[in-house]
Amino acid sequence: MIPIANEDLLLRQAPHSLEAEQAVLGSMLIDEDCVKLVMEKLRPDDFYLRQNREIFQTIYTMFAYSKPIDGITVADEMQRNGIYDEATTPSYLAQLMEITPTSANVMEYAAIVSDKALLRAIGTAAAEITALVQEGAGEARTILEASEQKIYAIRKGEGAKSLTPLKYALADVLDRLEEMSESENHLPGLSTGLSAIDRKIMGLNRSDLILLAARPGMGKTSMALNIALNVAKSSAKNVAIFSLEMSKEQLASRILSVESLVDNYRLKTGELSPEDWDKIAEAVGRLSALNILLDDDPLLSVADMNAKCRRLDNLGLVVIDYLQLMSSSGNRSRMNENRQQVVSDMSRMLKIMAKELDVPVICLSQLSRANEKRDDKRPQLSDLRESGAIEQDADIVMFLYRDDYYNEDSDKHNIAECIVAKNRHGETGTVELRWMPEYTMFATIEKRSEYE
Question: Active-site positions?
Answer without folding.
Answer: 245
